Amino acid sequence: SRDFRPADSVIDVGYGVKVGGTELAIMAGPCSIENEEHIFDSARAVKAAGANILRGGAFKPRTSPYTFRGLGEEGLRYLHAAGKAHGLPVITELMSVRDIDAVCEYADIIQIGARNMQNFILLDEVGRVKKPVMLKRGLSGQIEEWLLAAEYIMAQGNPNVILCERGIRTFETAYRNTFDVNAIPLVRELSHLPIIADPSHGTGKASLVTPVAMAAIAAGADGLMIEVHNNPDHALSDGAQSLTYDRFAGMMRSVGAIAAAV
Ligand code: PEP
Ligand code: MN
User: Fold this and answer.
1) Are the CB atoms for 48 and 29 separated by under 8 Å?
2) Measured between alpha carbons, how far is 27 from 4 in angstroms, rounded to an integer?
3) Rounded to an integer, what distance in angstroms lies between the CA atom of residue 137 and that of residue 105?
4) Nearest C-alpha to atom 1 of ligand 1 is from which residue?
């Protein structure tokens, strides 16, 4: 907490990119790594628009077991190669202790997904490695529970923790999740850890992503995680919330204007 460590933590994630501090961290890319060519093209497009971190899922937590669950280790290899080719650190989700060595080998940042926010054994294990970890807020995670989950990682000796607000489940069904903008200034008050906003999962709807991204940056977020796809209608996961390359470039301009003003 701030009482223990007053100064903001700044996390070095490789390729000269820092999360927290003065520069915004913009993590962008497809929900899932779909194939080698697709992730390379995504890396090129998001970098051209100003992203500095590439995202892509290889192990996907899907509601239905009959939908695409990711390419697994093959996907990790494509993601790593695409990041390397374009000079971008990469982030991908680790769902199980089973895959920790593979994810550590290929990723620069380990993502702990919303559904695993309180998977304490997984948190212990990522606490034992030194890689930066981005801990997403659980679907019904209270702020205190989320910050204590981050403590699990740090208590094992890994101080490189990034938080990510990705929306919570409420009574509202008009959108997928309710992005809790309140969490951003509150977490900044309570914690020294950097906080990223994910308006893609936070809304579930592409048309809402840019305005909510702008709100999150105005509220003090250290960066964004944005799902981007060249052809959202054909995405293997989360197409409804994915921005096209053009739309993502437009979002970057809008967010840049807010960042310059705050
Ligand atoms: C994701 O980033 O694709 C993802 C599954 O996120 P969350 O854990 O926030 O649902
Ligand atoms: Mn997704």
Assistant:
1) no
2) 29
3) 25
4) 31
Please report the ipTM that was assigned to this predicted complex.
0.99
Q: How far is the CA of 122 from the centre of ligand 1 (A)?
A: 16
Q: Give pLDDT tens digits along the chain (262 positions).
A: 888 888 999 999 999 999 999 999 999 999 999 999 999 999 999 999 999 999 999 999 999 999 999 999 999 999 999 999 999 999 999 999 999 999 999 999 999 999 999 999 999 999 999 999 999 999 999 999 999 999 999 999 999 999 999 999 999 999 999 999 999 999 999 999 999 999 999 999 999 999 999 999 999 999 999 999 999 999 999 999 999 999 999 999 999 999 999 9
* Protein residues with CB under 6 Å of any ligand 1 atom: 31, 57, 61, 113-115, 136, 166, 201
Ranges assigned E (strand) in 105-227: 109-112, 133-136, 161-165, 195-197, 223-227
Domains of the chain plus CATH, in order, are 11-261 (3.20.20.70)
Mutation choice for ligand 1 from 31, 117, 139, 169, CB with most ligand atoms inside 8 A: 31
**Where does residue 171 rank: exposed (0-12), middle (13-18), buried (19+ CB within 10 A)?**
exposed
Burial annotation 99-125 (CB, 10 A radius, 16+ → b, else e): bbebbeebbbbbbbbbebbbbeebbeb
Report which protein residue has its CA nearest ligand 1's atom 4: 113
Separation between Cα atoms, residue 40 and residue 26, nearest integer Å: 17
